[in-house]
Amino acid sequence: MNNYFITRQPYSVNNRKESKLLVFVNKGLRFLKTGLNIQQQDTSVDMNTVEQRINYYHLLNSVISDNVPGEVVELGCFTGQCAVLFQKVIEQRKSNKQLHLYDSFFATFKHKGSVEDELKKNFERAQLPQPNIHKGGFEETLPAQLPEQIAFVHIDCGFGGDKFQHKAVMLHCFASIYPRMPKGAICVLMDYYDAKENSEGIDINPGVKLAYDEFFADKPEDIVALFGNQYNHAYFRKV
Ligand SMILES: C[S@@+](CC[C@H](N)C(=O)[O-])C[C@H]1O[C@@H](n2cnc3c(N)ncnc32)[C@H](O)[C@@H]1O
């Protein structure tokens, strides 16, 4: 597939037998020559929604257009579903920003085999240059292996575990990236859920908001919740 919003055939479609109803509906759509084919996406394995991917596209584009200095960082890259999109934007804009990815690759979700190898293969399949991979726990790699300046950062390190453990990891991420973000830089927080802002979706990783509320209590930045369909996310821009 050659578009910005779908990196590859989602796992859920590859790995799951389609329901009889879906097969029937798709046959009907083919018969009517609509060109449509409905696919079931399961975000527990596909990691993000199309709506979120559209948000990433525009947010990363905006820091490039605003000439915000610094590199592009993702904390929690897994097999690179977001990372491939980030690199596509960098290429399309002919930007000289470098992509830095951080992960211990301990979480496999439903993936079989090496997550790191799959990440590299996804970049090969998309015919993109390989990213800078920083393998290890954030406790070891951050902040030492971060670039001096960060223009755009995506924090996505939820794995459905204990919310206080996750909060502690998020606090370490914030403390590491915040001083390296220049004015205008953007940080996107996967799974940020605020019951007041997000009527849709589920609070899958409550540690994100717990950490944000604590770290940003004395900071001037405002959080902006974005529509992400089944999943939620939000961003702040450095003041
Ligand atoms: C939800 S996945 C990231 C999905 C990814 N952004 C994508 O688009 O495919 C979360 C990742 O965070 C990583 N992670 C969680 N806690 C971590 C930690 N303390 N140090 C390093 N990696 C961590 C996991 O290994 C996992 O790959």
From TrEMBL:
Signal peptide: none annotated. It holds the Pfam family TylF. InterPro entries: SAM-dependent_MTases_sf (IPR029063), TylF_MeTrfase (IPR008884). PANTHER family: MACROCIN O-METHYLTRANSFERASE (PTHR40036). This is Methyltransferase. It comes from Mucilaginibacter pedocola.
